Amino acid sequence: MLQARFTAGLGDELPDFLSKTERSARMSRIRGTNTGPERGMFRMLRREGVYFARHARGLPGSPDIVFRRCRLAVFIDGDFWHGRNFGRWRAGLTEYWRDKIAKNISRDRRVARRLRTQGWNVVRLWAKDLERDPESGLDMILSARRDLLRTCATSSIRKTK
Fold first, then answer.
1. Is 126 in contact with 84 (CB distance < 8 Å)?
2. Is the CATH number 1.10.530.10 carried by domain 28-156?
3. What is the pLDDT confidence band of residue 1, given thresholds at 50, 70 and 90?
């Protein structure tokens, strides 16, 4: 379990078992973009013949998948880094990691708020959920896209009349 790795039981922090160089080398291999769940979703969307942009740097938070026409931004979040069920396991972390993940959660909320104020719709999916059931994640993205395209099409029809 994750907690056993970071604490000795009563809140005592264990020292890192790796040197600074070894820890740095390990951490550098953690991907921020094009993770396995992201690549899987990219393949599934291409299989469906859907056009999308990846990692749109011009948008707040650089969403993993972007549908510009209907203004839909999709994030695929790692459970640890983005704090899924953080309240359940945060006590087992060192202060550094508690602060880091809390800041990540706060940033995710801020980014979603900024996107919404700019007229974007935001969908967030958990990487573990996509690993377990990628089809339901695909369905969620496609149905949100379909609904937004329908809304977009009806509003443009009203404007032309």
1. yes
2. no
3. very low
